[in-house]
Amino acid sequence: MTVRRSRIVACGSALPRRAVSNLELAETVDTSDEWIVQRTGIRQRYIAGPDEKTSDLAIAAARAALDRAGLTGSEIDLIVLATTTPDNTFPATASRVQAALGMVGGVAFDVQAVCSGFVFALSTADNMMRLGQANRALVIGAETFTRILDWNDRGTCVLFGDGAGAVVLEASLGNGDADDRGILSTHLRSDGRLHDALYVDGGVSSTGTVGHVRMEGREVFKHAVTNMAECAEIALKANGLTVDAVDWLVPHQANRRIIEATCRKLGLPLDRVIMCVERHANTSAASVPLALDEAVTDGRIKPGDMVLMDAMGGGFTWGSALARW
Length: 325
Ligand code: UT7
Description:
Layout: E1 3-14, E2 18-21, H1 22-25, H2 33-40, E3 44-47, H3 54-69, E4 78-82, H4 93-100, E5 107-111, H5 117-130, E6 136-143, H6 154-157, E7 163-174, E8 182-190, E9 198-200, E10 213-215, H7 217-238, E11 248-251, H8 256-266, H9 277-280, H10 287-297, E12 306-313, E13 317-324
Bound molecules: oxa(dethia)-CoA.
The site of oxa(dethia)-CoA has 21 residues, from helix 2, helix 6 and helix 7.
């Protein structure tokens, strides 16, 4: 049976100009390089300057992905952008990206699922493309997450960074089995009862302020491991596969220990995991596409590889996407 799928044909990414090491951070925050590396694996993060907005990073990442795909913005008919830190309350940051890329048709909008945002955006675009509502899409995860940090809260401010990653999706036809190239399946979940374990204490309709990230770290850690392992297993089962079939896991990059514990649960060796948390820290919706771009660019992810993307974030939200590259 012939089925319509979407396939990732190119990746791109962008980082702010300024990298800040743990040592530099420890000059103003009551922390140490040793604590941060031991508890999280993070060694540095990029912090956007006042002139670097979420849309600037998103546009740069999207342009890099389009260049690699040999396409222009006018050939794209869908942009789904995941962010928790939009330029403005409205309109969507995606509309700025749409205009900057010279895309005059189609549709561009944002989705919000915090650190799971890229997987949610990918799932949205994939489903629209399967239904024939779009033929070529840009899926972007972009954040200036450091704008919502409380620099007096050492339990959160050392963990996050800024950046953007983008992928170009093209519609393709397959046989409907796991040998098809393209996105094989996506699975999304959420549980609103856990809202208060990871949230921002401000917002348009609550306080009228932007607010800061608040987190119960241990609670989030525990659920992250359980939920990311669960979603990975669901993706494999849905495609009649076992963990042995996975060439690369591209997990949300929040904490090296979360990734390691998830892999132990899955029985997946760490040499099949893409990890860049040490250089980027947690960039929320940008973390999975930043990791993807790095691994595709350096040749680790190759055509035909089975790639499992997996994320977890505030809400709680979590989800996975399985793709044959
Ligand atoms: O994308 C999803 C978003 N978030 C996450 O995935 C984060 C999930 N959680 C985590 O990654 C971990 O829970 C953290 C890295 C946030 C914290 O690690 P932990 O091993 O759970 O440490 P903890 O919160 O239990 O704190 C241990 C100690 C405390 O001191 P006492 O009470 O034992 O004396 C903290 O005050 O470490 C202290 N501490 C710090 N010390 C130095 C907390 N933050 C820092 C810091 N520098 N930055």
